[in-house]
Amino acid sequence: MIVLGIETSCDETGVAIYDGKNGRLLSNALYSQIDLHAQYGGVVPELASRDHVAKLKPLVYEALAEAKITLKEIDAIAYTAMPGLVGALMVGAAFAKALAYMLDIPSVAIHHMEGHLLAPLLSEGEKPDYPYVALLVSGGHTQLIEVDGFGQYKLLGESIDDAAGEAFDKTAKLLGLPYPGGPHLAKLAEKGKPDQFELPRPMCDRPGLDFSFSGLKTAVLNTWQQSDQSDQTKADIANAFQQAVVDTIVIKCKRALKQSKVKNLVVAGGVSANKHLREKLQQLADKNSWRVFYPPMAYCTDNGAMIAIAGAYRLQHGFVDQDMSIEVKPRAPLNHT
Ligand code: KG4
Ligand code: ZN
Predict the structure, then answer these.
(1) Residue 273 has what pLDDT?
(2) Considering the chain, what percentage of its residues have pLDDT values greater than 90?
(3) Which of 60, 119, 172, 313 is 20 to 30 Å from 190 at the Cα level?
């Protein structure tokens, strides 16, 4: 079963080919729209949609060439149908379904977060066993999910306002860092001295597994405005912010694993690229004899490979689009079937 995966939910056009029978990724083509949106300080949805239109076809041919196969050898097409920017999703969904119709092969709708959740299975090394707790930390989501098997997802907690990545991006913006803020802020934090500023660890002083990050950016703004606003201070504040987000996430992960009596933690989504988060989660795991799994670095942020592998699993479990109608959703729970 050779699956073509198409990702267009936000500002990355991703196309990949996954061989489900042999469990091997054959190719992964990616085009990032970062330069296009940078001048606006954030993603402009209409521009994102238009650029997906322009890039999809060449990326499909790039992916085919890298996999050394032809269109006729594709058995199915998986595409991100939710959640995301509706126009951007529409481009990928319409393209995928039209191509599947033309090739007379099945298409299958994928939930973007299920893609992130399964991305660690793209690893060449050891893969996590069920059950595991998944921490999904992206620009749009912060969720803790108990995964008991493929498709068996129990939401343990999530952000009630800003996602972790969103908090990184917004905080970076108010500190005057370029888009996309997360990686820039993380880099600046490395130059900062730890413990120079005290920021809250939101919702950690009460039980539960939900997160709230929107107050943190206000705390950063106040701290910045009352400071000497030197470059070193900016780096120190970035360090304090990163520390606050990471501590909060680590506390909630500890609770989630203890509560569900699970020993494996899977971390995915763009923020899982954060080095400090990785260090702290590893320390937590070592202390408790737990294990932490990540997707390969290239598949932490949005990509087509995670959609292709999710497609292969979905098809294996009998999921397939029933008709030609194109349905995309800006928001959707993970158990969307
Ligand atoms: O998963 P992703 O590529 O897209 C969404 O589905 O949202 O995640 C992107 C998010 C952005 O908010 C970005 O700033 C954040 O992940 N991010 C990081 C780092 N790399 C990406 N945040 C903190 N540290 C990083 N190293
Ligand atoms: Zn994502």
Answers:
(1) 92
(2) 90
(3) 119
